[in-house]
Every structure is written in structure tokens, then in C-alpha cells.
Specification:
Chain lengths: ~350, ~160
């Protein structure tokens, strides 16, 4: 393949992923409202379009048409930059997540991942640690006490849970012997899903993922009763939409990561058994990936409307005294498995 | 000038310009912020040299850990005493002499060292080799460094706890 071909193919993949991401984010907000309505025995949005299906567009246009207010006390350049950092990080992470096996289109062998990097998982970790900047800058540059407190809380929370997240991933890496996401997916062939082989690591990772995305029960950065709106209190219009978008994009990323690392990625043992090959099988694999991600997204929303928020000290205790030791136990467990069964 | 060189100079430019801002900016938050780009530029040069692992670790450790700590410190202490912390650039002459000597020494080392150059390809991935070396040849240093970090952690925890008495 010449360089031009590689660039064109990559651009098509990027475009596809961005479009899918944006529509998913838009409808994720809709489903969040619908599911919350269902959980609270309400009806939910049903005015705009059939069963409220056009609601996301109405929301987006409303946000874009609002006036952009920057407080006098704010630090203008950083105040503007913060939502863009948040958006950049959440979209860039998707580059290394494989959503299907290799396919053959027009004689080209194409991997269904935007960038097949051999240190993909480290790349994800590095970008997640960048995500803290968007929130820290937003909190500090707004020039408001509530924003600053929200930003500081959020950064402390993300840094703490990054530790147990990293250690949970170490267990996965021990089994797959590679940092490349495609190899990690392939290592979970059949029913050897990491969620089954190392359930403790799965739990610690999912909990850390909730904390990293600042979702309930870990949404202390924007705890309304104490902090008004947390780090984005002073944001309006498009910049607020940026943070809003980033939060939901982060949820998708977290779900994709959980599926890739622990739920076998695009693999589906039932398709393997059925003996299907070619395009049909590929489509089924991609569909299984999307289904698993959709389930994890539902899980995220489900948890949000079922569990109350933690207190700050409880959050830190859980992170450092429960999740971190559990992640270490998981590493020993996986190492023992490898020693005993020669996996 | 080929593609590779253009990218190298781009990263070098980012690194040097942002490092210049770090030193000269009067607002310490801006200094911290442009330090972010310095780290990125250096990481980019690592990628260009084929050491992907070091590049990502550079971002994880410096950008994700150390710089956040610096910014935290600045942000939380900046407005406590109503005097904004400003970086003073008052020792121009001694600094210029010191940096000049360092630059001369580094250039001399660079020019006069007989560099080992092997006509080999850039390795596809360095992670496996680094892992093996850390566990075999350099295991003692590796463990000692781990101990050092543990000591630092315990020290930090002890200092933080003292107030409770």
C-alpha cells in the first residue's frame, strides 16, 4: 500500500468513527433521559418528533443559540481552551479501539481500527491522564470558588482511580502478553473472556471507569447540592456543550475499553460455532461489538439512576483502601493462573 | 529536506519555543501550561526515534503526574495571600554563564564522542526488550528505584498526617 492509499483509508475510518461517535452521543443523551424517566416512573421527552426522537437535535440547537457568557473574573484564554482539551481527549482515545476483525474490501486488507498501535493500551492511559487538564483548567480559569472546588475534587478523584485502573489493566496484559488492543482481543478467544478469567480485575476496572468518567455514584465534581454545577458552573452555550459532549463521549470510550479489555472485544463464540465465514461473519462480529458496547452504556445509565452519590471521604477510602488492594490481588491471581495452567 | 526532517524540526521548534515561554512568562500558570507543550515536543521526538514506549511513558509520568502536581500547587496557593506569585527573572548574567558552559560542554561531548552507529533498522517495538532488560540485567536498579519511590510515598504520607495531633 502506498502512502496515499494509507492516508485515504485512514481518513475514511476517522470520518466513520467520528460520525458514529457524534450520533451515538446525541442519542445517548436521549436514552439517558428516557431510561431515567423509566426508572422514576415518568414518561420522558416525547414532544419533538416521533416519541421524542428528534429531541437531541433540539437540545443541541438550543445550546448553540444561547449567549456565550465569560465571567469577568475568568482567565479568558484558558477558559476557552478547557472544553476543547476535554473534547480532544475523549475523541482521540477512540483511535486505538478495534471494532471488528480484518476485512477485505476492493482487494485491500483493512483492519477495523483507526490506528493499530503496538502500545495502544498505554496510549489510552496517557490520554486519560490528559483528561484531567480540561477539568483542572476549567475549574481554575472560571475564577469561581465552586468551579475551583469542583475542578480540584475531580482531578484528585481521577488521579486516585487511575492507579487502580492501571493495575487492573496489568492483569489483562499478563494474559495477552501484548499492549496492542487487537492482540488483547485475540487472546480472549472463545469464552476466555477476561471478565470470566479475572472477575476481580473486571470489577475494579469497571468501578475505576465510572470514577474516571465522573459518572454517578462518583460525580462529586458536579455535586449539585454543594457545588452548584462543579467545574462547568461558569460555562454556557457552545463551551458547555463541549463539556457535555465530552462526558458522554467518555462514557462511550469507557464502555469500548471495558468491552475490548474484558468482554472479548468483537469476538462472539456463537458465530465461531455457527461456522459462518466471510462478510456475514464480519458483520456479525461488528454487531456483537456494538451490542456489548450498547449494553455497557445501558449499564452506565442504569447505575446512575439507581445508586446515590458517595461522600468525598468514602470515595477516597474506596479508591485507595478497597479498589487498589483488590487490583493487586487480581494481579497475583492472574500470575498464579498463568503459573498453574501455563496459559 | 525530507519528510522526516520536517517533522523533527517541527517538534524541536515546539519544544524550544514552549520552553522559552516557560522561562520568560510572567504568569506562572502560563509557564506551567506551556511546559505541557515542551513535554509533548520531547515525546514527539522520542516517537520519531522509534522509542514508542519511552514517548508514552514520558506523557504519562510528566504530563499526567508531575505537571498536574505543579499546577495544583500553583492554583491552590496562588491567591491565598493576595500576592500573585510572579516568576522573577533577576539573575540573568549568572544564568547565562551557567547555561553557556553547559551548552559548550554538551556540544563538545556530542562532537568528540565516537558514537557507536549500527546500520540496523529501527526496532518495530521496544516494549518487549525494555521489559526483558528490566527484569534481567537491570533488576537490582529497578528494585532499588521501586524502594526509593516507596520511601518517598511513606515520607509524604507521614508529613501529611502530622497535623492531626
Amino acid at each position: 500500500m502506498s502512502i496515499l492509499e494509507i492516508i485515504v483509508i485512514s481518513l475514511i475510518k476517522i470520518l466513520l468513527v467520528v460520525i458514529v461517535m457524534l450520533t451515538t452521543v446525541a442519542y445517548l443523551v436521549y436514552f439517558e433521559r428516557k431510561i431515567s424517566a423509566w426508572a422514576q416512573n415518568r414518561i420522558g421527552p416525547n414532544r419533538v418528533g416521533f416519541h421524542g426522537l428528534l429531541q437531541p437535535f433540539a437540545d443541541v440547537f438550543k445550546l448553540l443559540l444561547k449567549e456565550d457568557i465569560v465571567p469577568d473574573a475568568a482567565n479568558r484564554p484558558l477558559h476557552t481552551l478547557a472544553p476543547f482539551i476535554a473534547l480532544f481527549v475523549s475523541f482521540a482515545t477512540y483511535a486505538v479501539i478495534p471494532f471488528g476483525p480484518s476485512v477485505n474490501i476492493f482487494g485491500y486488507d483493512i483492519k477495523l481500527v483507526v490506528a493499530d498501535v503496538n502500545i495502544g493500551i498505554l496510549y489510552v492511559l496517557a490520554l486519560t491522564s490528559l483528561g484531567v487538564y480540561g477539568i483542572t483548567f476549567a475549574g481554575w480559569s472560571s475564577g469561581s470558588k465552586y468551579s475551583l472546588l469542583g475542578g480540584v475534587r475531580s482531578s484528585a478523584q481521577m488521579i486516585s482511580y487511575e492507579v487502580s485502573m492501571g493495575f487492573s489493566i496489568a492483569g489483562v496484559l499478563l494474559l495477552s502478553e501484548s499492549l496492542r488492543p487487537i492482540d488483547i482481543v485475540n487472546a480472549q478467544h472463545g469464552w476466555m473472556w477476561n471478565a470470566i478469567v479475572q472477575p476481580i480485575g473486571f470489577i475494579t476496572f469497571v468501578v475505576s471507569a465510572f470514577a474516571e468518567t465522573n459518572r454517578l455514584p462518583f460525580d462529586l465534581p458536579e455535586a449539585e447540592p454543594e457545588l452548584v454545577g462543579g467545574y462547568h458552573t461558569e460555562y454556557s452555550s457552545f463551551k458547555f456543550a463541549g463539556f457535555f459532549l465530552a462526558e458522554y463521549a467518555n462514557m462511550i470510550i469507557a464502555s469500548c475499553l471495558i468491552v475490548t479489555l474484558y468482554l472479548g472485544g468483537w469476538q462472539n463464540p456463537l458465530v465461531d460455532i455457527s461456522g459462518l465465514t466471510g462478510t456475514v461473519a464480519t458483520l456479525l462480529y461488528v454487531a456483537s461489538f456494538l451490542f456489548k458496547v450498547a449494553f455497557m452504556l445501558f449499564f452506565f445509565i442504569w447505575v446512575r439512576w439507581s445508586i446515590p452519590r458517595f461522600r468525598y471521604d468514602q470515595l477516597m477510602n474506596l479508591g485507595w483502601k478497597v479498589m487498589f488492594p483488590l487490583a493487586l490481588v487480581n494481579i497475583i491471581w492472574v500470575a498464579a493462573l498463568i503459573m498453574i495452567f501455563n496459559l | 529536506m525530507d519528510f522526516y526532517n520536517i517533522i523533527f524540526f517541527l517538534f524541536a521548534l515546539i519544544t524550544i519555543v514552549s520552553a522559552f515561554i516557560v522561562v520568560t512568562s510572567r504568569n506562572i500558570i502560563y509557564s506551567g501550561f506551556s511546559l505541557l507543550f515542551t513535554f509533548f515536543g520531547v515525546a514527539g521526538i522520542y516517537v520519531l526515534l522509534g522509542s514508542d514506549f519511552i514517548a508514552v511513558v514520558q506523557i504519562m509520568v510528566y504530563v499526567g503526574g508531575i505537571l498536574i502536581l505543579i499546577l495544583f500547587g500553583v492554583m491552590l496557593t496562588n491567591k491565598i495571600v493576595d500576592v500573585e506569585i510572579r516568576t522573577g527573572a533577576s539573575h540573568m548574567l549568572p544564568a547565562a554563564i551557567g547555561v553557556g558552559i553547559l551548552f559548550g560542554a554538551l556540544t563538545a561531548v556530542m562532537v568528540f564522542t565516537g558514537w557507536k552507529s549500527e546500520p540496523g533498522l529501527v526496532p518495530q517495538t521496544t516494549t518487549v526488550d525494555i521489559g526483558k532488560l528490566l527484569i534481567t540485567d537491570y533488576v537490582l536498579i529497578f528494585e532499588l528505584l521501586a524502594m526509593l519511590l516507596l520511601v518517598a510515598l511513606i515520607g509524604a504520607a507521614t508529613i501529611a498526617r502530622r497535623e492531626k495531633e
